[in-house]
Design brief:
536 residues
Amino acid sequence: MSASPHRLLSLLPHSGGRSATVCHYRCGDACAQPVPNTSDNEYLGDVIAASLSRRSLLTGAAGVIGLGAAWTLLEPAGHAVAAPTTASVIAEKANGLGFTPISPVRATVDEVTVPAGFEWSTLIRWGDPILPGAPKFDFENQTAKAQAMQFGYNNDFTALIADSVRDAILVCNHEYTNEALMFRGWTNDAAASLEQLRISMAAHGMSVVEVSRRKVTQPWTYKPKASKNRRITAHTPFDVSGPAAGSKYLKTSADPSGTKVLGTLNNCAGSVTPWGTILSGEENFNQYFRVAAAPTDPETAAGYKRYGIATGTGRNWYRADSRFDTAVEPNEPHRFGWVVEIDPEDPESTPVKHTALGRFKHEAATIRIAEDGRAVAYSGDDERFDYLYKFISKDKYTKSRNRSGKRHNMSLLTQGDLYVARFDGTPSPEYDGTGVWIPLVENGVSKVPGMSVEQVLVFTRLAADKVAPTKMDRPEDVQPSPVTGKVYMACTNNSNRTAAQIDAANPRASNKSGHVIEITEKGNDAAALTFDWAIV
């Protein structure tokens, strides 16, 4: 943005390949912290020195590196949307994509690169006013009140829900803030003014914005003050649904019911449900809390440790809002790490945190409808050596698009069964095997010895540790194919995996580039409890 000062970001990568600046603000330097999963679950397979050969990932890794570098450079104000022009109606290439992909872009190239025949333009930027009464963005005089009415900072998941070829709703997650770029003369969180901290809190969350275009060959433009425009911030009220709603682990002095939470944090990927709502995953929420001293309560202490909530001041938000101080509200961290659902069509609706899907560092939750009509949600826990999960709803999806049908479908994620994945197989050049969905909660009953349903759902990582699932290389986004029904899981990386820890589904030590696993549920039914898998 022309109004903001240019600042050279550090491009020195961490072990995963991101710049040090992005790692610091996005996930609190998670890769530099101790691995939260210290359980003694075995690593599947024999100890061998494996490398991917028959199903090489070189092509895929190069594509990821190119996209990652471009994303890093776009991070300060990169809300660009590439759109085809009339000239882009080109002959379909042999790759079947309909365009010629760009070559990998070096991290030193500070520009937006799009395929030949395409142009890009800015649809909406950080600080653009979207709600009635929102002032024009003023970099030098930004306020928290203004930010709460303006487009937030940093997009991760972005969805375009089209009512027609000319009208749509744009929904964006605002995963994290980079205060070094947001405020002139920024030094660190501890030295920030209270208003700067409040601005950062207001820049988190999500934005819902109406967009339109006159012709399909023209770019979208956003509608300021449109009736469906909405900002969700760190202070927006959320309802809590599911078996853990009202749990003692979720109660605070401000919410003795344990059913109302303010805000959503570090929203990473997401999905559009078959019923037209948005699911968003709360990921690296652990970095926002002050922990002056380790909790004396053994259960709380174990939960903090397993979720990476470490002693320190976090992002110093506690100075502006005491609920982020665990000495004041020890249960506040338990109120984050959920899948949240919002209705982009109803700006007056209260968004929901779904406890039935479990609490961990959700990258996202994506939905596939099973053969019997139940909704199945896949979700990865984006941490080194953590797990892949699946939720199967108790009730069935209805295709009815009327108000009662939508209301029914929006209740599907409140009750159901929760599972975690075990990938079986012997490490070999085939890189495939079978798998089992291990129950954590089934038919309303905990399947984890010594843990109640609410304990399983609030401390899902600890519950999963007890049933021996497979420790994965950061299982991140999980996407069912709308064509074949096969499920694809991106394992981002794990430079900490040693040669002694490799297994069939994670066959590389010091796995910097990650890999993709294709899952085929038994009978191609999303509700099946066994599956085949292969590294593609």
